[in-house]
Amino acid sequence: MKQPAATSKSESRIRTERQARILKAAETVFARRGFNGARLMEIAAEAGLPKANLLYYFRSKEDIYRAVCQDILETWLGALGDISAADKPDDALRKYIEAKMDLSLKRPNASRVFAMEIISGAPVIGDYLARDLKDWVDKQAGVFRIWQERGEMAEVSPPHVLFLIWAATQTYADFSTQITAVLGCEKISRNEYKKAVDTVTGVVLRGLGTR
Amino acid sequence: MKQPAATSKSESRIRTERQARILKAAETVFARRGFNGARLMEIAAEAGLPKANLLYYFRSKEDIYRAVCQDILETWLGALGDISAADKPDDALRKYIEAKMDLSLKRPNASRVFAMEIISGAPVIGDYLARDLKDWVDKQAGVFRIWQERGEMAEVSPPHVLFLIWAATQTYADFSTQITAVLGCEKISRNEYKKAVDTVTGVVLRGLGTR
DNA sequence: GTCTATACAACGATAGAC
DNA sequence: GTCTATCGTTGTATAGAC
Question: Does A120 lie in the same domain as A28?
Fold first, then answer.
């Protein structure tokens, strides 16, 4: 059998552990090589497993990739809460931006895989974008409009505000190569990271007139 | 001879024309498939040339890719002028953002190839980033600091302001798939594009206190 | 200068021993 | 459940006819 059902608790446990290790390694490799550039050998090495093992736990390379994308989407939906009209705009947005920055820096590879997937036309997660993400944006846009009616937020297009925040925060993961090159450092330091958060929150919140 | 020197004006003219066609096609294909996913066959088809022709004008696939990157860098350096301390911050920044937006929308594929290259760690253009782009940023940061001393700009980190502007404008090229999915449209319309420019300039300029 | 035919390498996937 | 050996495909690059 190629994809045996778990027949005992211990087998299932090994399976789960191995799959998690493979997905973690795959995320790293897909992030630096892209889907087509990624080699099963490299993923196997990164995971510390023999290559044949990968295709024992997953049917194909594409299957691994889909699982990685799935995992990323679930993490993001879970980590980024909703914003409600009852929240104070300044607090809520500051928290959202900080959470997004934090995620970009804690899982830069997830962010990069996601970015490449979208640049390539989102062949795998396109449906998610058009359904779940669209719903989420429509709801948040409604909240922004309520704030605007109350005069608590400048009159700018709500979805485009979200695009701006996403872009500004993700760039610290996706484009870290460019950022370190321009800053002339090896790695984005803790101090530089703080400057980044301050700049993004400062410009965006002042720009939206929420304070 | 594999890469013959042009022996007459007309040969040279054909050569130049063919190379330009190949580079244009390559930019399109690299943008949607990435370097590794791109196939010489697909580039040839896109260029309307026989496949063997590509490797007659360029030594290898990597050579084509390098030429595409080179072309993109030159375009960008040429199209985006400098900002001088003598300029009025509001005008100068508005013009810069508009130019950057315009470029992202006129050559989205160039933007995407550039993005993927950086996400992959900038193996080809890394030197350019650390040298030319760094110099440019250092110079512009100086201008921003002068404005800040005059009280014409909020006290935020100059390089991070540039990262923010780059991210916000490039997202309309690189992430257009996500944007159209969320907005529920086929293509970013002229009207939506105007909203995008207004939102980015509005939030950034107000956020920087230049007006 | 153009194109066909092919050499050669790399990789994903599988079969089957242990 | 693990691993080796190998198949078949695909894609870059080249040799050589026209």
Answer: no
